[in-house]
Amino acid sequence: MEVDVEAAHSLMITNGTAAVHHANGEELVRAGATQQGHYLLPEQMENGRYTAVFVVQAQGSDAQVPALMNIDVNDNVVTVAP
Length: 82
Prior knowledge:
This protein is mostly beta strands. It is built from no helices and five strands. The protein has one domain (about 5-80).
């Protein structure tokens, strides 16, 4: 049996010295679906390298699942960086 789960999420983007963007939200996560978070990114980010920190927490749980990634922005094209 597949069950949909309500989840809260937050995203913080830093440029190495300061937070440049922060977003929070809640959504219903469909069982078996792939979630995409690109809609949480701000528009018109300046070119450069950033660190993105994601935190997801399922409703009714105290556990938080953090993830960290580096991203490069070049003329509004965002790519995951090593």
